[in-house]
Design goal:
single chain, alpha+beta, GTP Cyclohydrolase I, domain 2, 6-stranded antiparallel beta sheet, about 20% helix, elongated, disordered C terminus
Length: about 120
């Protein structure tokens, strides 16, 4: 039987590599486990380590996905980082583990004319 495990982190933080200010996001991780589950306390400690990590939004999101894939090898994984606006720009990055076990990054940018999708 397959089931989906979901972890929601409402206040994930990392540092902007350009100006050094905190970036905040709402992080959602969904996956179908194979043999192992992610321990919630271990995940919390790992995500807290990004507090002093300087990286761009898409870099943090994909780094977390790659670490989970390397650690537990899930059957399926989806991660979404809904980054709060800084400078008037809201962005969302998501990655998905597919059949080929590759992570693809998609970027959404909300502008005046609604949602535009960049990949």
């Amino acid at each position: 039987m397959n089931y989906v495990a979901r972890y929601v982190v409402p206040e994930f933080t990392s540092l902007c590599p350009i100006i050094g200010q905190l970036d905040f996001t709402h992080l959602v991780i969904d996956y179908v486990p194979d043999q192992f589950l992610v321990d919630s306390k271990s995940l919390e400690l790992y995500l807290t380590s990004f507090r002093n990590h300087k990286a761009f939004h898409e870099g943090c999101t994909i780094d977390i996905a790659k670490k989970i894939i390397a650690t537990i090898a899930p059957r399926w994984l989806r991660i979404g980082g809904y980054w709060y606006p800084r400078g008037g720009c809201r962005s969302m990055f998501s990655g998905r583990l597919g059949r080929r076990r590759t992570v693809r990054c998609h970027r959404w940018h909300a502008g005046r004319r609604g949602r535009r999708r960049y990949s």
